[in-house]
Amino acid sequence: MNSNQQISDYIFFYPDVMDVKTCEWIINRYDTTAKWQQSTFSNNYGNTGTSQVAMEEYWIRSQAPYYKDIKESFEYCVNDYTSVYDKIKSKDYTDFRINRYGEGGFMKQHIDGIHHSHGQKQGYPHLTSLIFLNDDYEGGDFVLCGDKYIEKIQGSAIVFPSNFMYPHEVKEVTDGKRFSVMTWIL
User: Fold this and answer.
1) Crossing angle for the helix pair 20-33 and 67-84, nearest 10 degrees?
2) What is the dihedral of CA 16, 108, 186, 148, to 10 degrees?
3) Per-residue confidence (pLDDT) for residue 4, from 0 to 100
4) How far is the C-alpha of 94 from the C-alpha of 126, rounded, in Å?
5) Residue 177 to residue 169: CA distance in whole angstroms
6) Could you give the CA distance from residue 171 to residue 105 in angstroms, rounded to a whole number?
7) Staple 174 to which of 86, 111, 139, 160, CB 3.0 to 4.6 Å?
8) What distance in Å separates the CA atoms of residue 170 and residue 6, rounded to the nearest whole number?
9) Residues 6+ apart with CB under 8 A from 123
């Protein structure tokens, strides 16, 4: 980072990366048919648990319904991001995790300094990307770096570095269900 750059210069927001109809189809498909699992966290000491997160997750792998739509949306964002910051070489994406937060759901502040994700591909991620599938809920704000609230827009996406300078969290959902889909770029 040169002296004129801010941490926020490395956070890219895309307000309309996925159309509303596709977002709704994804939610309707997976909300009712996915085999949701309680999400857990793990730390550097090998401990895992649920005190840091109250969310359900489901992993969308290739050949799954809407995988291609999701991948194209992520690729659009990541390709744009890496055209600006061309030292980042995107080699692979993890499978896509759809997140479902019910009322009371949250994810405490953390960083994405992982080595492997739930038995998937291994390697440290360069970037994190999320697509916000809905905006018809209360609370559930996505907050980066302690004070940057990301606007809640259905079909929008965000890309940011997966390192210690970008702690992020999801505030408690107070009404409705919050859906997003994410990937790490290796």
Assistant:
1) 130
2) 50
3) 85
4) 12
5) 16
6) 8
7) 139
8) 23
9) 92, 115, 116, 186
Looking at residue 180, its pLDDT comes to 98
Give the HSE-up count for residue 139: Cα atoms under 13 Å, Cβ half-sphere. Answer: 16
**DSSP string for 160-185:** EE-STT--EEEPPEEES-EEEEEEEE
**Helix boundaries (H) for the chain:** 20-33, 67-84
Is there a contact between 123 and 150 (Cβ–Cβ < 8 Å)? no
What is the model's pLDDT at position 44? 56
Backbone angles phi, psi at 58, to 5 degrees: -145, 135
Question: Which pLDDT belongs to residue 90?
Answer: 85
Cα 172 from Cα 184, distance rounded (Å): 23
Residue type for 97, please? R
**Average pLDDT, stretch 35-45?**
77
- With a CB cutoff of 8 Å and minimum separation 6, the contacts of 148 are 8, 11
Indicate yes or no: pTM above 0.85: yes
Q: Specify the pLDDT at position 124.
A: 77
Looking only at the bridges linking them, the beta strands covering 173-175 and 48-49 are unpaired
Q: Report the pLDDT value the prediction gives residue 143, as an integer from 0 to 100.
A: 98
Give pLDDT, residue 117. Answer: 53
Tens of pLDDT, residue by residue over 50-61, are 678 999 999 999
The DSSP output letter for 116 is B
- Tell me the one-letter amino acid at 87: K
